[in-house]
Amino acid sequence: MNITEKLDQLADMQAHADVIRLHFNDLRAKILTPEIKQQLDDLDAEMNTALDTLNGGITTLTAEIKDDVLKSGATVKGASLMAVWNKGRVSWDTKSLDGYMVAHPEMTAFRKEGEPSVTIRKV
């Protein structure tokens, strides 16, 4: 089987998984009475309100921690979490350096290229 055929098979399998999820969601919806559905909707709304409030606090505190760690310039470890300070990454203009390397072949000793990778995306 070639790669295109395998990709098509993978897409078919993913679509089948979606069909199974929809089928069981439909079965679940048939079991639930309108009263229970309303109670679940009310419960979800209450949960979402509580989580929205908490997530706002999490976002604010996370930003404060990151700012404090950036100012301190050091990693800080708590009981369950740690804020890891990383120095800024260096980047290079690869296109320009590759052109420069043509005129200065001695630079090829300093060039490293990682292994290729593959991600699968929807078309």
Overview of this protein structure:
This protein is mainly α. The protein has helices at 3-31, 34-72, 94-103; strands spanning 76-77, 82-83. The protein has a domain at 32-85. 63% of the residues lie in helices and 3% in strands. A two-stranded antiparallel sheet has the order 1-2. A hairpin with a 4-residue loop joins strand 1 (76-77) and strand 2. The radius of gyration is 26 Å and the shape is flat.
What is the count of helical runs? 3
Described by strand count, sense and barrel closure, the largest sheet is: 2 strands, antiparallel
- Supply Rg: 26 Å
Strand content: under 5%
Mean pLDDT: 94
Structural class: mainly alpha
Q: Roughly how much helix do the residues carry, as a percent range?
A: 55-70%
Strand ordering within the main sheet = 1-2
Sequence stretches where pLDDT stays below 50 over 5 or more residues? none
